[in-house]
C-alpha cells in the first residue's frame, strides 16, 4: 500500500529564495505549455498538443533558458507537464459526459504550490539515517534542506514533492510499504450520520460536536481580508512590505483553520476505526449539496429576478464546507483500509424520516431538527440517532448480513 508523509522543512534564507524561484519557474512552464495547447487548438485547425510533444521540447527549452529552466530537475518538469495533461484529459472527459467543462486556467504562483519529483534519487534525495539527528532532503538547484522529521518513514520512497503554504515549506513523501497488521476485532458495528449542528451521531447514541473552526475565525479572517483589500492589486514582486504582510496574515489564518479541521477529522476517524469492525455512512454528494440555487427570472418584468433563497443557501453552504465532511470521509476510508476495517457508503435518502421501529416513512416524522416522532407508532428519539440506525441497517443489508 502507499502511505504519504508530510514534514516541515527548515530552509536557510538562500534556500528559501531558491525554493520560491523553483516554484515560479515551474509555474511559468505550466502556463507556457497551456498557452501552446490553446494556440494550437485555435489557430492550427483545432490541433491538440499531447504530453509527448511538449516533453520532447523540454531539452530545447532548458538550453534556451538555462538560468530559469535549465537549473531544475528534468523529471520534475516532466511531472509539471503531466499535471497539465491530466487537467486537459479531465476537461475533455467532462465535455463528453455533459458536465460543466471547466477549462484549465493559467496559474498564478500563489495557486501553483507544489513541485513533484517522480522518483527518489532523480533530482532529489531523501537523506534520513538512523544515527544522524538531522534529516535533510537534497533538491536539485536548492541544496540540502533540513527537515523536521517528527516520525519515522517506513517503506520504500516512491515520490518526493515540495509544497509551499504561506511562508512555510513542506516536503511530502509517498512510500510503498507492506500492508500493516489489522487491528484486533472488536465485534462492534456502527452507523454514522453526519450533520451541521452536531458533526457526527452514531447508532449507539454517541455524539461528536461540530467545532465550527471556520465560524470561530470568521471575524479575524474578515478583518484581515478587509485590510488586504485596501492595497492596490499588484504582482508579488511589486508589493510593499505592508502588502506582503497583509497577504501572509490572511494565508496564515486560513491555514490555521485548515489544519484544525484536518486534526479534528483525523481524531474522529481514528476513534471510530479503533472501536468498530464495520462502519456505515451516508454516500453524500457534497459537491451537489453546496451548489448555489438557480436564478428565477421574473416573467412579468424583463431583466428582473424573483427571490430564490440564495442568501440562506449561502449560509448553509458555508456551514457544510466548515464541517469538512469530505476530508473526514477520505481519512476514514484510508484509516479503515490500514486497520483492516470495513467501511460502506449507503443511499442517504429518507434515513432521517424512516422509523427504525415500524418502518413508516414520512417527512412529518421529523418535526424539528433534533426530534424524531413517528406518526404511525409514536416512537420518539433523537433524529440524528435515528438516521445513524437506518444507515447501519442499510449498510448491513448491502454487505449481505442480517439487519441489526
Describe the structure.
By secondary structure, the protein is an alpha+beta fold. It has two domains: 2-176, no CATH class; 189-399, no CATH class. The protein is 42% helix and 20% strand. The chain has a seven-stranded antiparallel sheet. A five-stranded mixed sheet has the order 10-9-8-11-14.
* Count of spatially separate domains: 2
Oligomer: single chain
Order of helices and strands: EHHHHEEEEEEEEEHHHEHEEHHEEEH
Distance between the termini: 32 Å
Report the count of strand segments.
Answer: 16
**Helix amount, in percent?**
40-55%
**Residue share in β-strands:** 15-25%
| Apparent shape | globular
Q: Average pLDDT across residues?
A: 91
Structural class based on helices, strands and sheet pairing: alpha+beta
Structure annotation, total helices: 11
Largest sheet, described in full? 7 strands, antiparallel
Query: What Rg do the Cα atoms give?
Result: 26 Å
- Poorly predicted regions are none
Adjacency order of strands in the biggest sheet? 2-6-7-1-5-4-3
